[in-house]
Amino acid sequence: MNAPRQHVTENLWLALDTLRTHKFRSFLTILGVVIGTFTIIGVASIIAGLDHQMVQMMEQWGTRSLFIAKFQPGIHFGRLSREERMRKPLTYEQAMALRELCPSVETVGVEMWNWGPSPSIKYKGDEMLDANFSGITPEVFRTDNATLADGRFFNEVDDTHRRDVAVIGSDIVKRFFLNEDPVGKTILVDGHPFVIVGTLGERKEFLGDSGNNRVVSIPYFTFKKLYPNTKENFIHAQALPGKLNEAMDEVTGVLRRLRKDKPSDPNSFGISTVDSIIQQFHQITGTIALVLVVLSSIGLLVGGIGVMNIMLVSVTERTREIGVRKAIGARRSDITWQFLLEAMTLTGSGGVFGILAGFILSFLIRALVPSLPSTVPLWSVVTGFVVAVSIGLFFGMWPALKASRLDPIVALRYE
Known about the structure:
Blueprint: H1 2-21, H2 23-59, E1 65-69, H3 82-85, H4 92-101, E2 105-112, E3 121-123, E4 126-128, E5 132-136, H5 139-143, E6 148-151, H6 156-160, E7 165-168, H7 170-176, E8 186-189, E9 192-200, E10 215-219, H8 220-226, E11 233-239, H9 244-258, E12 270-273, H10 274-317, H11 319-327, H12 332-368, H13 378-395, H14 397-404, H15 408-413
């Protein structure tokens, strides 16, 4: 029972001894495998980090949230279709109808903003031009699981009476109120004064800045008073616990009826959930990862061809050794496994170096670019090593078979 294991162990040590004897040649041979494995690990670490950060950011809104807009909320590439461009905006009245007619919907809020350049936010001569300014109904704080850091949220009374009050995000606080309490202070938004009544708790962001903390929110009807020509509404809804699918169906049915969508026509609006946006992001990153892995396979292919060439040279150099081994009783399978293990050890070593380089890259990314998340998933390590060893097995097969088929008499006469 121990004989096969002994042969494997001996062949493995023989392969390692060959690598030590020809260090530089072995390094050049496995360089392609190192690069290919390094690319797999590097890509996987960045993609895994981005996925984890996206999930953390989106889950802050809660698993019961529904996002409803004229277009499909989420991540988009390419141009809108003519049908999408011709859609009418969602209205405040439609949002209120969802609150009344959808029994599985717990809360509905409405948000409105201007398409175009961000407004100027000023305080004591300091100015900010990249804030996210919008008018919202008080329910949006609840549907978005917003947390309060200081002060209060504005309420229905503030909204109904169109009061000039605002709730600001943590980045606005850091920018204007680093050494003072913002509550009760007045900021200017496009020249309009707003009294700050509350500040929001800090939200997790994607790639260091997704705009979640740069918000200036004012009451919905105050916004309408200032910008009467604005028509675009974004509806936030929250389903009752365990009723997310039912809520989506009810919202879809009510909106199709209110917006007079024909049975044969697609929805003239879009609905997304936290899970659907996360899945959409996973599909995008999965496609990117697949493309990059395919490109990295070129390095593995080059490395494999290099391994095959060097193993053929090794067979030629060690022809007499093969003849001696056969003369003293070595079987063809022994010779085959000797060279296969040598090729697999060669590429496996390249895989290990590539994995180590990938870990170093991931560490450097986290240290130097904190906003770009990076974490090495276990599956990428296993995949990288298995692929590297498999390259040695595949490309080492021909040299190994060639060595095993040598005639011992001819091999012993080889000079």
